[in-house]
Amino acid sequence: MYFGNLVYLRLMTLEDVDHIMTHFNDLELRSTLMHQLPMSREEEEDWIRNTWRAKQKGEAYVFSIIEKKSEEWLGNVGLTIKPPLSARRAELGIAIMDKTKQGKGYGTDAVRTMCAFGFQILGLNSIMLKHVTFNEQGRKAYEKVGFKEVGRERQATFVLGKFYDMVIMDILRSEFEALYPNLSLFPS
Hints:
- By secondary structure, this protein is an alpha+beta fold.
- It has an eight-stranded mixed β-sheet, sandwiched between helices.
- Strand 7 (148-159) and strand 8 (162-172) form a beta hairpin.
- The model has no long low-confidence stretch (mean pLDDT 91).
- It has a single domain (2-179), classed as Aminopeptidase (3-Layer(aba) Sandwich).
- The protein has six helices and eight strands, in the order E-E-H-H-H-E-E-E-H-E-H-E-E-H.
């Protein structure tokens, strides 16, 4: 497990499917994740199994986000390694699935903790992400961690009948370490 201030990250388990199914089939949530089609329980179980296989291959690392105080499951966060491996880059994705838990700092803390994992454990040099332009809450969380906009893919995604730009953001290891020189992934 890897510990932030408000949350900790642990490997996903099949028991997480109950939580995912409670929230993921909400169209508003899925639209910010660029995944407009609903998923079945079997598809979600397969997705979790695929995250395990990707971790074993060193291709991706996906964790459940758990609130430290209540031990409540909040969502998931992951890094997908971008080829070539020598570039030491990854793409970040996150979902705080319970709407009542959004906007309370959990996503920011999970992103910060995941970046620390990427830089301190995986030895990455750069972490990037993409978000749809209407995901202002996500953008604010990413900026709080230190991500900067580096470009846009114009009209790159189609959501509920309309095209939207995808914003590309990134953070370098040196920038992250300057912002968080003493950040530890161990429990405090």
